[in-house]
UniProtKB/TrEMBL annotation:
<dbReference type="GO" id="GO:0005737">
    <property type="term" value="C:cytoplasm"/>
</dbReference>
<dbReference type="GO" id="GO:0009432">
    <property type="term" value="P:SOS response"/>
</dbReference>
<protein>
    <recommendedName>
        <fullName>RimK-like ATP-grasp domain-containing protein</fullName>
    </recommendedName>
</protein>
<dbReference type="GO" id="GO:0018169">
    <property type="term" value="F:ribosomal S6-glutamic acid ligase activity"/>
</dbReference>
Length: 345
C-alpha cells in the first residue's frame, strides 16, 4: 500500500490533511506527498495505490483535483478520496440544490436564475423576506436576507453586471444597520468602506484565487424563528451531530462558533435523513445543516463534505446506521482513513 497525499494549491497540506499525515505516521502506513507542480507528477501518481486530498475553499484546489481525479482513478487505477459523488457539489450551492431536489430529498424550496430578467420577474411576484445566495461562500458569506424588491434588485444588478469577488455580496438589511450593530460598529464599518474606496487601505483577501461569481443566483425560502441549526456529519456508517446557534442579530448559524454537542438535544429525524441521503448518493463523507419550518419539520439547508474537524472531534460519541449510540470522541480523519484504507486504525 502506498498512500499519496496531494498537496493543495499553496504547495502545502492544509491543516485538515496534516492530521491525515499524523495518523498515517502514527500507524506506520507508508505515504508520500504528491506535488501537483512536479515534473514527475505522473510517475509519482503511478506508484500510489491510494490518492487522498482535502479541498480548501479556493477555486484552484477544485481545479487541481478535478484535473487529476479522472486520470488517477481511470487511467492509473488508483483509489481516490473523496470520490466523485462526494466532491462534485463542493462549494456550489446550486449543484447542492439541484442534486438533492432531483432525488426528492427535503431541501429548502429555492429558485435558481441564470438570467437577470427572470430574477427580476421572480422578485416582483414573491413574498419577502427571502434568502439570496451565490453558489460559493463559506461561513455564511454571500448569503443575505432580502426584505424588499429594492434590496433584491441591488443584489441582482451586482451579480449580473460586474459580478462578486470573494465575500462581496452585501446588503444593508443584514448586519450593517445601526439597529443591528450599534453606532460604534456601524461607524467603524462605514469608515472602513470609505477608506477602501479611496484606496487608502487594502482589505486582506482570504482566497485571492477565487474567481468572480456572476450570472447566477439562488433565492431560497426564508424559514423564520430558527435560533440554531443542526449539523449532522456522516462518515461511512457513523453520524456525528451538534447544534450551531445563530450569531447575535443575525439569521445565520454557519461560522458562529457557538455549538452544543449534547446528544440528547439532537433531532433523530435529521440523522435518519442524512444517512439516507449519503447512502443513496454514495457520499464518502458529508455534513448536513438542518433547520425547521413552521410545522417543526426538518429541512436540509446546505451540505458540504468539508467541515471543521475539531467540532466533530468534540462530539462525545456517534450514532451508527441503526441509531445505536457509541460513546467516545474521534477525529473525523481517523474514521475517513479507516474507511478509505479498509483498516482498523
Amino acid at each position: 500500500m502506498e498512500v499519496g497525499l496531494l498537496l493543495n494549491s499553496n504547495n502545502r497540506l492544509c491543516p485538515y490533511s496534516e492530521r491525515y499525515k499524523e495518523i498515517l505516521d502514527e500507524n506506520n502506513i507508508h505515504f508520500k506527498l504528491i506535488d501537483p507542480n512536479s515534473y514527475t507528477l505522473f510517475d509519482e501518481l503511478q506508484s500510489c495505490s491510494h490518492l487522498l486530498f482535502h479541498h480548501t475553499q479556493g477555486d484552484t484546489d477544485m481545479l487541481i483535483y478535478e484535473s487529476l481525479f479522472y486520470i488517477a482513478q481511470n487511467v492509473f487505477n488508483i483509489k481516490c478520496y473523496p470520490n466523485f459523488e462526494t466532491y462534485w457539489s463542493y462549494e456550489n450551492k446550486i449543484k447542492e440544490y439541484y442534486l438533492l431536489k432531483s432525488h426528492g430529498f427535503p431541501i429548502i424550496d429555492s429558485q435558481v436564475f441564470w438570467n437577470n430578467n427572470h430574477a427580476y420577474n421572480f422578485l416582483n411576484e414573491t413574498e419577502f423576506p427571502i434568502i439570496a445566495k451565490l453558489s460559493k461562500g463559506a461561513s455564511s458569506s454571500n448569503v443575505v436576507i432580502l426584505n424588499s424588491f429594492g434590496e433584491g434588485k441591488k443584489i441582482i444588478d451586482q451579480v449580473f453586471n460586474d459580478g462578486v469577488k470573494v465575500r462581496g455580496l452585501q446588503n444593508r438589511s443584514n448586519l450593517t444597520s445601526i439597529s443591528n450593530v450599534g453606532y460604534f460598529n456601524y461607524g467603524k464599518a462605514t469608515l472602513k468602506s470609505i477608506l477602501l474606496k479611496l484606496n487608502l487601505i487594502k482589505e486582506k483577501i482570504e482566497y485571492p484565487e477565487w474567481q468572480i461569481q456572476k450570472d447566477s443566483i439562488l433565492f431560497q425560502k426564508y424559514l423564520p424563528n430558527n435560533t440554531f441549526d443542526t449539523r449532522i456529519t456522516i462518515i461511512g456508517d457513523r453520524a456525528f451531530a451538534f447544534r450551531r446557534f445563530v450569531r447575535e442579530n443575525d439569521f445565520r448559524a454557519s461560522g458562529s462558533g457557538k455549538i452544543d454537542v449534547n446528544p440528547d438535544k439532537i433531532d433523530i429525524r435529521c440523522i435518519e435523513i442524512a444517512f439516507s441521503v449519503s447512502k443513496k448518493l454514495n457520499f464518502n463523507t458529508m455534513a448536513y445543516d438542518f433547520i425547521y419550518d413552521e410545522e417543526k419539520e426538518p429541512w436540509i439547508n446546505e451540505i458540504s463534505y468539508c467541515f471543521v474537524d475539531s467540532a466533530v472531534q468534540s462530539c462525545p460519541g456517534h450514532w451508527d446506521e441503526k441509531l445505536n449510540w457509541h460513546k467516545g470522541q474521534c477525529w473525523p480523519q481517523k474514521c475517513q482513513l479507516e474507511d478509505f484504507l479498509e483498516l482498523n486504525i
